[in-house]
Amino acid sequence: MTLNHISKLANQAKGRGIKEGGIEELSVKRSCNEIIGNHAPASLKLMDIAKIFVSSDDLIVAQTYCSFGDNDNDDRDKANRDKATQELADRLPSYGDFNLGLHVGDQPSQVHRRRGQLLAALNAHIQQNTHQASSITQLHWVNQVHGNHVIDVDAQPLSLSAQDADAMISQSAQCALAIMTADCVPIVLYQPASGQIGAIHAGWQGLANGIIAATVKRFNPSMPIYAWIGACISQANYQVSTEVASKLVESCLSL
Fold first, then answer.
1. Burial bucket for residue 62 (CB in 10 Å: 0-12, 13-18, 19+)
2. Per-residue pLDDT tens over the stretch 246-255
3. What is the distance between the alpha carbons of residues 149 and 120, in angstroms, rounded to a whole number?
4. Which of 242, 199, 236 lies closest to 59, judged by CA?
5. Following DSSP, what letter does each residue of 180-238 receive, concatenated?
6. Rounded to 5 degrees, what are φ and ψ at 71?
7. CA-based angle 170:112:42, to the nearest 5?
8. 0.90 cut: is pTM over it?
9. Is 161 helix (H, G, I), strand (E, B) or coil?
10. Residue 48, Cβ neighbours under 10 Å: how many?
11. What angle do CA 27, 30, 33 make, to 5 degrees?
């Protein structure tokens, strides 16, 4: 699994507290310092765990790596493995070394530890590479359902359960948005004039349901919006049925 992490730090800091979605989440009321102290070694750098697309005083856009180590070897022909090797491969987990998802069978405590590492790495990067004196204190997640619901995280109360949605927006300082994808398309939106960011999980169903348009409509239409598209499956490796193609065409024509 690939996790795509989207983070924005606005100029004026406000608000405190951690917000992480998921039924198996730990307490959302712990301070940022507690999470960093308990789970994240200071030696971990953001560049060690993520591809950084943008790094400025106002915005960080990064896509985390999720390597499979020796377990993932595309050069081996699965058909040529002997039965014992195949049975072992079938039992291997479907997530990599830096998995941040709570929904793939990984140990929740390990997922929380890595999320703490990610938060600490982001804050260390901010301190070392920007002019911001404040840190990220809110890390938001959603339960992605391939729909078109957009959540304004600034208007949501703290909760132990992630809401069903496929996009988030925020204008809050010290706020980070996290979207998880495998083959789906991760998209980041940023409007400098308003300071608003958006993070979108765009699978084919979300595209057909208008998730991108629904998120763009939550921005000021009179001001420019910048967008970044993260790593996702390519056309050459993704075959769809005529039915799927027709739904996407219909969705485009309806805009």
1. buried
2. 888 888 887 7
3. 30
4. 199
5. EESSSEEEEEEETTTTEEEEEEE-HHHHHTTHHHHHHTTS-TTS--EEEE-----GGG-
6. -75, -20
7. 90
8. no
9. coil
10. 11
11. 145
